[in-house]
Amino acid sequence: MESNLNSLETRFGRLTDIVIESIPGIIGGIILLILGKYVIGFVDRLLHKRFERKNVDPSIRAFISSIVKIVMWVMLLLTVASQIGIQTTSFIAALSAFGLAVGMALQGSLSNFAGGVLILMFRPFEVGDSISSANGTAGTVERIDILYSTLIGDDGVRVFSPNGPLANSVIKNYTKIVQRMFEYTISISYDKNVKEAKDIILRVLRSNENVLTTPEPTVFIKELGDSAMVLTVRAWTKREHYVAARNSMQEKIMLELERNDISLSSNPTQISIVSNSSDQGTAKA
Question: In which broad location class does this protein mainly occur, judging by the first location in its UniProt entry (predicted)?
Answer without folding.
Answer: membrane
